[in-house]
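User: Hi! I'm working on a homework problem where we have to compare a predicted structure to a textbook description. Could you give me the structure for the chain below?
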Amino acid sequence: MLPFALIEADWAAHSNLDENSQRLYILNRWRGRNEAETLEGLIHRLKGDYEFEYLQNQVEVHPARKHYDIPKILLDSTPGSNCDLIAAADSVGALYPFLMLELGLCYKEIEVVREKNPNNMWKIIFTLLEKWRQQHPKDCTTRNLLDTASFVGIDTTQIQKMV
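Assistant: Happy to help. Predicted structure tokens:
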């Protein structure tokens, strides 16, 4: 019998995901099974195949700050309501684990919420976004949500319209 990680890697490699999404999927699953491992440790493991500086630069990429047709006061402050979270929960879809990891939630938190809400992706996403807002009160602006969602490949058009 093949190890589970190899089966998942094979699934990702043959699915309809683009190449970057396949890599993120495999990295996300690896990270969930190797919680004590640091990103630096992974980079050192891969060092034989890749240049260390190249990998370091790839890992340190952050979401670009974009322009939105939304008043600055709404973008750069913590919203008084959850309208941006509701709009995001409606729009994020299956890329939610990558968004949550980029927003600063850990893999275990994502899995716990996912297990508590099977078959309800909207509730999973909304609950995780609320958790992000609670854990990162200084960074939980609508702009950060939009920039990060865009960074992981989520179309933010609907979120922008609903804010």
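For your comparison, note the following. The chain has a mean pLDDT of 76. The two ends are 49 Å apart (CA to CA). Good luck with the assignment!
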